[in-house]
Amino acid sequence: MMIRRRQFLQGLGACVALPAFQSLGVKVAHGADAKTASQLATTAAGAPIRTAFMYFPNGAIPSQWWPEGGEKEFKLNRTLEPLESKLAQLQILHGLDNKSAEAHSDGGGDHARGGGTFLTGVRLNKSATDIRNGISIDQEIANRIGHLTRFPSLELTCEANRQTGECDSGYSCAYQFNVSWQNAKTPKSPEANPRLVFERLFGSGSVGQRAANLERRRTEQRSILDFVMDDAQAMQKRLARRDNDKLDQYLTGVREIETRIQNAEKFGKVIDPNVPTPDGIPASYEEHIQLMFDIMTLAFQTDSTRVVTMLLAHDGSNRSFEHIGIVEGHHDLSHHQDKPDRIEKVAKIDRWYMEQFAKFLDRIDAIEDIDGKSILHNSMILLGSGNADGNRHSHTDVPLILAGQGGGQLSTGRFVKHGSKPLTNLYLGMADKLGISDLSQFGDSSDRLINI
């Protein structure tokens, strides 16, 4: 029975992606089941606790990154100096390792492994087609608290040009261009266009029009879903058993979309921020980053989501930084071979990323939350890289900063030396602060990190 997709959709076009059935002569495209959220993440005063995970590429120059001194009495080194004014609200974490990214017998591919494992702690399958990773911590959190907001999570990137197929030494590009993973096979593709993210959150159009436009879009979505469900159920009698199983999986995905729409409607009218809609992807990389930070700020401020990932650039990025006088590619420079002039240029790039991060922290620290504290106070914002020393492709002592006080639960203003422990231990500790008590193991964790 060869029925074309067009016949099945009856003019619907590509508004809703269909699975594929052997009975219909098309290819398979699965979705993944989402788990039921069950935990509440708020402060004692009832303010939401937000989490964000941000990734910068190619590690850092260790000698320029790590402070000098003890836990409370220390001096920031050159790279982290832009964060001086926010020191009381962050921790610099030393001694956490991303060992799931180490080569072992897999050979090259440290950039794919560094980025791909950063939030999962799961060893990757080295293949361009047989993708195997693990769920990332942001999605583990979203599965539990995502029902509290209109969007369970938000995935952002400043990589306007993404690759597919094989990227780093035989690894799939999926590992290198995604830090958020719904499950072992399914990355959560981030959005690079600020305009599309903004309209997804608040609706299209100008100020005053967005709420009506968003409601219109939801109505259209419901009509589309009703149409697809009716036709899909009518087709069940015409499919083989194996294809019926696939159709059941597909219908589960459709029902999840319905649930998300219904969940969004529970929160009433969407707050329309009194700001213009972004035009799209700016030509300036710095402007692109800051625009994404602005949208993240609005998402937190309106409680549209409490879980965000942000890929500033993929590991292995060879972007040049001509605006700060560096014409060579970042990745090329990171293999500096201990040449002072190249080390100097990488350190300058590292510092530039910290300057961008500092602006974001200033922004969310200036916004009062519902409990009178700032959004930064009521957040846990992790910035880091899955590679430590880009020259050696090492994955021990990866550079990490944890900003925010988690609603007063985190002990900030510290340079904390944790010895040598899995990075994933930190994720269990962060989950604890959100009230997620049933997560006993994550990735390659060995224990929970309590001292945060």
Helices and strands, with pairings:
Blueprint: H1 5-9, E1 50-55, H2 62-65, E2 68-69, E3 74-75, E4 90-97, H3 110-117, H4 137-145, E5 154-157, H5 173-177, H6 194-202, H7 210-235, H8 241-266, H9 285-301, E6 307-311, H10 330-334, H11 340-365, E7 379-384, E8 400-403, E9 414-422, H12 423-433
Parallel strand pairs: 1-6, 1-7, 4-9, 5-6
Antiparallel strand pairs: 2-3, 4-8, 7-8
What does this structure look like?
The structure is a single chain. This protein has 452 residues and is of the alpha/beta class. The protein folds into 2 domains: 1-23 and 204-269, no CATH class; 46-203 and 276-433, Alkaline Phosphatase, subunit A (3-Layer(aba) Sandwich), CATH 3.40.720. 33% of the residues lie in helices and 10% in strands. The protein has 12 helices and 9 strands. The strands form 2 sheets. It has a 7-stranded mixed sheet, with helices on both faces. The protein has a two-stranded antiparallel ribbon with strand order 2-3. Helix 6 (194-202) packs parallel to helix 9 and helix 7 packs antiparallel against helix 8 (241-266). It is globular. It starts with a helix and ends in a 19-residue tail after the last helix. Mean pLDDT is 84; it is low at 1-39.
Name the descriptors.
452 residues; alpha/beta; Alkaline Phosphatase, subunit A; 7-stranded mixed beta sheet; two-stranded antiparallel ribbon; 9 strands; globular; disordered N terminus
State the gist of this model.
The protein is 33% helix and 10% strand. The protein has 452 residues and is α/β, with parallel strands linked by helices. The longest helix has 26 residues, at 210-235.
